[in-house]
Amino acid sequence: MSVIELEDVIKRYQSGVETVEALKGVDFSADRGEMVTVIGPSGSGKSTMLNMIGLLDTPTEGHVHLDARDVTDFSEDELTEERRTGIGFVFQDFHLLPMLTAVENVELPSMWNTSVDRHDRAVELLRRVGLGDRLDHTPDQLSGGQQQRVAVARSLINEPDILLADEPTGNLDQDTGQTILEELTRLKEDENVAIVAVTHDDQMLDYTDTTVRIVDGVIQEVAQP
Ligand code: ADP
Ligand code: ADP
């Protein structure tokens, strides 16, 4: 059962008098416990696709299904709520707040959420990514790999269905990138999340369950290694 699905999605941008068709009828799906990696040349529509999957933008035509619900016509407020509860984000440049400690950064997205014990879960997640002894460190006291592990823990605080990773190893050396990919692979199973990643890092494909190649707004190839 797919947790996220794009159905015949077309996305057009208006730039001046010109219309750019960034996605030309894209079908996509990801299951819980699956890592799907999207690859393709620059300008091919990867970010646009990630924005659709992350409910950050809406299609011009076609449908988006989250957990078997059609969310295409949801209002901006409803989409924000779905993003908060259902989707975790990991970025190339970590996006941690510099004045907060590791555990505070992890807790932050759950500030509105009274149904979980935020602090305990934040501590537990940091332990699980090997940072149990770095809880009170600020980002400048952590290495790049450690900062990305904090970001991974943060992305999971609200028990999302989907984790979106935009070049998660892009700012890390090869060995550090590998440890992050190992963490993601383990957490994907433990937390039963779908991971959708965009990358230029070939080593990521070794950890991927499904590779989707997009060229010029069209899915060219779906490979299961
Ligand atoms: P990628 O992530 O693969 O580099 P993008 O999804 O960013 O590709 O872009 C796909 C196409 O859509 C490109 O031609 C890009 O110039 C265009 N595009 C993306 N965002 C916008 C926007 N906000 N306005 C106009 N054109 C855009
Ligand atoms: P790109 O890969 O095109 O350079 P980014 O990696 O900066 O873009 O961001 C990818 C997408 O995620 C963008 O559409 C952006 O609006 C969105 N985004 C950036 N920061 C956040 C955030 N903190 N929470 C949710 N979405 C974000």
UniProtKB/TrEMBL annotation:
SMART domains named in the record: AAA (SM00382)
Entry's Gene Ontology cellular component terms: membrane protein complex; plasma membrane
UniProt-listed Pfam families: ABC_tran (PF00005)
Limits of the ABC transporter domain: 4-225
Gene3D superfamilies recorded: P-loop containing nucleotide triphosphate hydrolases
InterPro entries in UniProt: AAA+_ATPase, ABC_transporter-like_ATP-bd, ABC_transporter-like_CS, ABC_transpr_LolD-like, MacB-like_ATP-bd, P-loop_NTPase
Keyword annotations of the record: ATP-binding, Nucleotide-binding, Transport
GO MF terms held by the record: ATP binding; ATP hydrolysis activity; transmembrane transporter activity
Protein name, entry field: ABC transporter ATP-binding protein
